[in-house]
Amino acid sequence: MELRSLRYFMAIAKEQNMTNAASVLHISQPALSYQIAELEKEAGCLLFERTGRKMVLTEEGIKLLSRAERILELADKITDDLQDTGNEIKGDVYIGAAESPRIHLIAEAIASLQKQYPDIRYHFYSGNLDDVYGRLSRGDLDFAVMIEPFGFESCETIFLPEGDTEGVLIRKDHPLAGHQAITAEDLKDLPLLINSRSNFTIEDFARHFSIPAEQLKIAGSGNLVYNKAILAEHGIGAAVTLKDLVSCDENSQLVFLPFDPPIEKQLVFAWKKYRPLSSAAAALLREVQEQIRKQ
Length: 295
What we know:
With 295 residues, the chain is α/β, with parallel strands linked by helices. The chain has helices at 3-15, 18-25, 29-43, 59-82, 104-116, 129-138, 184-187, 202-209, 225-233, 279-294, and strands spanning 48-51, 54-57, 91-97, 120-126, 143-147, 155-159, 164-171, 191-195, 217-222, 238-242, 254-265, 267-272.
């Protein structure tokens, strides 16, 4: 499959209309129709259902969409890397990051670097450890900012200063809301909304509190704290998260309680070993190291 054909396919998937997609791509509608027909012929299946003037993805088209996005992202990144002459620092830097209030150090590094090199663009992808590490391994990302434990020996890593405190978000009218912290005894009757595919497993969690894993009540899971916080607001469970990711001011229905014994997390700034960095990515790495030195 040609990259051009995939870009045409992506445009139609977004616009859901052949005429609109042709206009966006600055080609004629007959030419676009021919290219998509050839792509479907090559794929051996229909990628769109034609309903009047609307183009709707088939099941096979949906499968191709996710793969096409990754292919085109990687192709664009390769082009940027090849065009990086090193004489003028510009281009794109791709960063995968976990949700953490400590990400401000990366923001400070970018703000400082932006003054020197305003033509660098920064692209963030938010996800959990599995998602971000997978993208880093495939070359979709230059850097990953992840919460420890981070045990991948194929990466170079540096620890960011300060740490994150883990705990739960629960409703202010919950019987435990007046406590100073959540203990092992509290957990026995507390439904939890845990982090999906976490690098800190239920078994790790249970060992930390010296209680059997089967005594933990799991009400659900999620990879974004915003969604878990909404579930917590409705009393579905206590959302396991880091401190300061969700506002718990007077207008909030939630309160944050840390764990006791405490669970402290460090952020790891990682990049693949033996993979050359573009001049823009290398500049960011130097600036992150400088920010760490200052702190």
